[in-house]
Amino acid sequence: MQxxxxxxxxxxxxxLKVADVMLPIDMAxxxxxxxxxxxxxxxxxxHRLGVVCIVDQKKHLTxxxxxxxxxxxxxxxxxxxxxxxxxDAIIHAVRSPISITxxxxxxxxxxxxxxxxxxxxxxxxxxxxxxxxLHLHQAIRGVLDTLQQSKNSL
Amino acid sequence: MINKxxxxxxxxxxxxxxGHGKDLVLIAGPCAIESRDHSMKMADMIGSVCDKLGVRxxxxxxxxxxxxxxxxxxxGLGLEEGLKILADxxxxxxxxxxxxxxxxxxxxxxxxxxxMVQVPAYLCRQTSMxxxxxxxxxxxxxxxxxxxxxxxxKNSCRKLETFGNDQILLTERGTFFGYNMLVNDMxxxxxxxxxxxxxxxxxxxxxxxxxxxxNISGGQREFIPHLTxxxxxxxxxxxxxxxxxxxxxxxxxxxxxxDFKYLELVLAQAKAMHEMRSELRAKWGEDxxxxx
Lengths: 154, 292
Fold this sequence. Notes:
The structure holds two protein chains of two kinds. By secondary structure, chain A is an alpha/beta fold. Chain A has one domain: CBS-domain (Roll). Chain A is built from eight helices and eight strands; from the N terminus they run ααββαββαααββαββα. Chain A has helices at 3-12, 18-21, 37-47, 67-76, 81-86, 89-92, 106-116, 136-153; strands at 23-24, 30-32, 51-55, 61-66, 94-95, 100-101, 120-124, 130-135. A four-stranded mixed β-sheet of chain A has the order 1-8-7-6. In chain A, a hairpin with a 5-residue loop joins β7 and β8 (130-135). In chain A, α7 (106-116) packs across α8. The radius of gyration of chain A is 17 Å and the shape is elongated. The relative contact order of chain A is 0.22. Chain B is α/β, with parallel strands linked by helices. Chain B has an eight-stranded parallel β-barrel, surrounded by seven helices. In chain B, 49% of the residues are buried. The mean pLDDT of chain B is 95. The chains are: A alpha/beta, B alpha/beta. Chain A binds chain B through residues 34, 36, 80, 82-83, 86-87, 91, and chain B through 1, 149, 151-152, 154-155, 158, 191, 194.
């Protein structure tokens, strides 16, 4: 991508916020801290996402577990499969994960995802309660749609 | 993981606590309540050894042995008479008491008398049993089934928690190794401790050879000292042993109960190993040898 194009894209979706394209909470896979790994993997499958946000009873974000985390565990933790599946997912989760608030500009969220090489960002309120999930596909779709609208209006 | 401590009411004296960093607690008694006199006698004898060694203990004897291999085996004195005897032992000796129960409908009465209720290993995943145990409001002594993996015991813990009881003691009592044979997988202790609940070693059932003698169980009691020391070294919070003053005439588990004359020998070593384990933990920290 050339610098000029990037500048155009940033300007074109200046007003698009994370809140506009994030998955609402009922479409984002959440698990409480005592959910076992098997149930979390099934939740990922059901939502067709590779991530689950782990929350406490008041929905505060306490961890995030990705397919990559599980893959790395499988390679390093020599547990019987049944034992691994019976673990609380929180044991294998990343604690204090990166998150974002809904009022952030979408392009800034995309920058962050690119920088951290992540596909999903939990969206939290001012009290770190999860309110949604920003998935890379929806974020890109939002930017592309805005670009298309900008082109059409020229 | 948060380590949980269970609290048992104790007649006349302070409650007993079983948990991480606490003193080793003994759960002991004859397998079955054979008679009032015998229960009183055993409570007196075991209590004297525990007093001598400075070990808090819980009297255990069952009023109904529902898992006997033969219909002609002694089944127990029954709910009503058995619980009366347990209540009397409790009062007379100032010791907490416990019994297992094998039918959900017996849970309530068992919980009214006993300071802790025990779920038999064969029934450790039965939802109706766990619901009844939880409903007593008393600490639940949950034995790991001989057929269960230690990690799958979490499912039974979750059931108890869901039914409102998180006072759980998890016990290793041997795992089936083919037919008529049990082995102790010492990994059970740290794995079950991952639940946060205290763990216990059942020394006399672990050496059982289940139904190996046709219609009764055999046993290899010569291994009780070795396995008890090993379990205490691994890390346990309680030790369970069935003890009898005359094993050949014991009405239940005659091939596995520990002869009373060896109680001090085994318990003193278990206590010493437990204390050494605490000292080693204080010096070297928790067991963690995984690379970062």
